[in-house]
Specification:
Layout (H helix, E strand, L loop, with lengths): L1 E4 L9 E4 L8 E2 L22 E2 L4 H11 L3 E5 L5 E6 H7 L4 H4 L16 E2 L4 H11 L3 E5 L5 E6 H8 L28 E2 L2 E2 L4
Parallel strand pairs: 4-5, 7-8
Antiparallel strand pairs: 1-2, 2-3, 5-6, 8-9, 10-11
Helix pairs in contact: 1-2
């Protein structure tokens, strides 16, 4: 339960506290906690596009291109994350001859890597240390059931430090379905009221 309590001598903006059972101290609101001590769930983005592991590399590229996303989580049928693809990796894979692209799947690009994830309850400082240790700028975030809950990126940390929320992809809202439905012949993405050429 949340409660608004005015602070004496301060401007009349409400302070958010979570009220606990009697005898327990109130939990400060996420904005009152230093960024590195916040839970990943308070900083991560939940507006993301995902691809099913058995979708083709071309479908993965089309999802990245249409959404403008930089990272694409690869999701197994049970909702667990198999790995994370970067736009550059998918673009490189799409440089192969067209005949082979229809036989390559998103999971094929993950074969030589283990999936490094963080739990949504972990501290941001721990998630940053995991990113640093693995030389990456994004990590899939899993919930209590080990299913994909969101994506934690270096840009999310910068946004939190600047006092802004996580990025929401245009047209997707906060929690789009995953794996994201792939529809053949998606309409071209619009940039500044101009039609982008279809690849």
């Amino acid at each position: 339960m949340r409660q608004h309590t005015p602070v004496q001598g301060a401007p009349q903006t409400p302070v958010h506290e979570e009220v606990r059972a009697s005898g327990e101290a109130p939990v400060p609101a996420p904005r009152d906690v230093p960024v590195l001590e916040r839970a990943v769930r308070d900083v991560m983005r939940t507006s993301l596009v995902t691809v099913a592991a058995d979708e083709t590399v071309l479908a993965a590229w089309e999802l990245l291109e249409r959404s403008g996303a930089r990272h694409l989580p690869v999701v197994l049928p049970d909702g667990r994350c198999a790995g994370l693809l970067d736009r550059a990796e998918v673009a490189t894979a799409c440089a192969a001859p067209a005949v082979s692209l229809s036989r390559r799947h998103a999971r094929d690009l993950l074969r030589c890597r283990r999936c490094v994830v963080v739990h949504h309850g972990d501290a941001v400082g721990r998630a940053v240390a995991v990113m640093d240790a693995n030389g990456c700028d994004a990590l899939p975030v899993v919930g209590d059931g080990e299913t994909l809950a969101g994506l934690f990126t270096a840009a999310d940390v910068v946004s939190a430090l600047a006092g802004r929320g996580a990025e929401v992809l245009p047209g997707l809202g906060e929690r789009p379905p995953y794996p994201y439905p792939v529809t053949p012949g998606l309409p071209p993405r619009r940039d500044d009221d101009r039609m982008s050429p279809v690849p």
